[in-house]
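Sanity check. The docking grid for zinc ion depends on where the pocket ends up, so I'm generating a full predicted complex first rather than guessing from homology. Inputs follow.
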Amino acid sequence: MAGYRKKRRGPQGPNKNEKKVLRSKDAQKQALAAGLLSEKFPSIKRLSVHLVFRSAQQQLLDEKTLQLGPTDPCLFAMPCPGRCGTGSFDFTGKVEEAARSLLPSSDSSGKCAKPIFVGSSDLCGCELKCRMDLEYFPDAVPEPQEPAAAAPQDASPAP
Ligand SMILES: [Zn+2]
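Predicted complex below; grid placement will be based on this.
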């Protein structure tokens, strides 16, 4: 055995790890505050979200797909990848809308309306296109109704 041991320590950046821990604690806190998909949207079995971010010049900035299930937190806000540095896209409302109507899919888009820097009148203008595909628990989907002909027709207009 050669006594040749080289133990390289990584950069002793003071708090890199701590920061990471803090960040993940933050994320945990956020996740807790957001609640689970099963709590907020009990009808959703699976939610897949495809996000495409483009700059105001239509340049592709980022693209990602989220796959969420009942045990995942409802984090439906994404930071804007644009120059603003402060904007975010929140598509919670779109999920709510889709889940309320049991829509199988939903398309939406939005533009970041933050100034590119504080005090600027130029807006960031980044665009997010969001495509969602949703799967619901069978219980959540109502049985197909009999044709409405069976319904009472008392409301016929008076002659
Ligand atoms: Zn932005």
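Relevant for the grid: The chain has a mean pLDDT of 85.
Also worth noting: The first strand starts at residue 44 and ends at 54.
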